Amino acid sequence: MSNPLLSAFETPFQLPPFSEIKEEHYVEAIDQALEEAKQEIRNIIKSEDEPTFENVVEELEKSGEKLSRNSSVLFNLNSAETNDEIQKITQDVSPKLAAFESEIKQDPDLFRKVRTIYDQKEELGLKPEQEKLLHDTYLDFVRRGVELEGADKERFREISIELSKLSLKFSENVLAETNSFELIVADEADLAGLPDDVVSRAAQLAQQKNHAGKWIFTLQAPSYIPFMEYADHRGLREQMFMAYMSKCLKGDDHDNQSIIKEVIALKAELAQLLGYPTFAHYILEQRMAEDPKKVKRFLDDLLNKSFPKAKEEVKEIKEYMKSRGIDHELQRWDWAYYSEKLRKEKYELNDELVKPYFKLENVIDGVFKTAEKLFEIRFVENSSLPRYHEDVRTYEVINSDGEGVAVFLADFFPRTGKRGGAWMTSFRGEKKINGERVLPQVSIVCNFTPSSEDAPSLLKFDEVKTLFHEFGHALHGMLADTTYESLAGTNVYWDFVELPSQIMENWCYEKECLDLFATHFETGELIPAELVNRIIKSSTYHEAYATLRQISFGLLDMAWHSLSPEEVKSITDVSEFEKKAFAPTELFPEVPGTNMSVQFSHIFAGGYAAGYYSYKWAEVLDADAFSVFKENGVFDKETASSFKEHVLSKGGTEHPMDLYKKFRGKEPSVDALLKRAGLVE
């Protein structure tokens, strides 16, 4: 069989021909595309023409298109539909790609051409987007070690390759540990408190795994989260918690402690090679926050405002337990359970009351209708488009003039070969070729509760927010309108990338939006205004605790990535280091044998190293930005058009603060976030 990855994709919208791609195709296709990309780079270097923006910077931007296309298929499937073979291929391919990237960015002859153009930038009459591409290209070379010499340059290359390997290994270990645990329940009495649909799915899973008549619970979110919130059996809650929080901490082949030490040491060394005090300084140079001190001030400010109230929230739960005659100490595996019970009593609200109004298909339709009202685009399902799994749903995105805007893939349910969580990605970014817009191929991947034989997929309110959140990222990719793919969509500063996603969550609390889709799955009744009001009132329930938890992760991230090479050498115990980092936010007794760092994929296997603070940073942006919609109307066309023009369509073509101020008219204020979170009156 011929290799479909070696030629142009003869498919609708040039989507990957997933059904034709076999594991054995990847290595050959990526190796060949790698050679083509290398030749394209050699052509730029060897050209004797006078260096220009067009023949150097734009040609660099265009180079490696097939390599990018083929590797995006591999890496996306390694996250969403993987197996042992794909994981091995990804491990083998990643060092080659890292080496190639280093080879390009460390080539002195190529850099001389880039620097020649950069030095002339004032006289070239470049458009703003061209200026940004030139600036980013130049800085990328410098940050990739092009000005290093001899052994330092070679060491930088070695570090880059090793980090790519370790990142993959970290992620694979977390996935393997997540998939390996099963809690098998044989006694029906042990299921007390659990919702019927959770029990039903557990029974179905047990049936599939040859444990008929029993129930199986896993560490996948749709199983783990409701178990921790509703299971009356405290011993089993503790067992589940310990299984979850001891992932990759057992001293076996999947232990990530040594990987963390290696990653941190390599990152600190890389930063030092380039002249930065720490890796955090290196990363934050290209962030809105700019430097570690500013991030620390930001997190400390939020910590000071949230800690006293979070302490009160924990005290409230302890008193609630006492009032029910419960005298054991409040532990981490108790928090979600008693917090949910008190929420139900305080607001007469729980997930089971809300879920009937959030049938998955209706919520999907709701995000589409929200986008249609705001940005005048439509989503037309086309099940004939290529997809990598039968669960994936495929759509054409069309504007009000009937023109194509994007292709959208949605993958909602957990599988063994899919990592946990939810994310947005793309198989192809938006760009223009000869003035013609190339449609982006955007995907969101989630892990929602699937339908069972006797119940449709009904989402918790938090899951509704997750869908709106990831859809916000997708809109950023789909509505991109830039010339260069490297500046399109989510290719923005990392502490700006969450604004489009987090602002979308706000519509989940608006009755005007909920009325578009939130109908009872059996009766068709619209979600009552009184229930929406209870959802809104409960939205600040334990918000200080939730804020503190996010701050704790941000502080842990900054602690790891603010180490100098000398300080890294002193780290002997990952758990002790984490304990010190968490200390300012701690509200619970220590639980030996648990650890967050070893499963913290965001910072050790994702793009959030020295950047986890950006979730709270973006909340400041989204609360401030949404206040404009609240003032003008949540579906105000003019406000939505301005947000689309200055934020969603522009990608990374300008500095994010400049884009934000064009939309908002001023810099963001933390006041809107503090008010929304109930931390100030």
Commentary on this structure:
There is one protein chain. This protein is α+β, with helices and mostly antiparallel strands and 681 residues long. Among the domains are: 4-105 and 107-143, Up-down Bundle (Glutathione S-transferase Yfyf (Class Pi), Chain A, domain 2), CATH 1.20.1050; 181-245, no CATH class. Helix content is 56%, strand content 6%. It has 28 helices and nine strands. The protein has helices at 23-46, 53-62, 65-80, 84-105, 108-119, 128-143, 150-180, 196-208, 221-230, 234-245, 257-273, 279-284, 292-323, 332-347, 351-354, 360-375, 461-478, 499-505, 511-514, 529-538, 543-561, 565-569, 574-582, 601-604, 614-632, 637-648, 656-664, 671-676; strands spanning 183-185, 215-217, 377-381, 393-399, 404-411, 423-428, 431-433, 436-438, 441-445. The strands form three sheets. A five-stranded mixed beta sheet has the order 3-4-5-9-6. A two-stranded antiparallel sheet has the order 1-2. A hairpin with a 2-residue loop joins strand 7 (431-433) and strand 8 (436-438). The longest helix has 32 residues, at 292-323. It is globular and about 85 Å long. It starts with 22 loop residues before the first helix and ends in a 5-residue tail after the last helix.
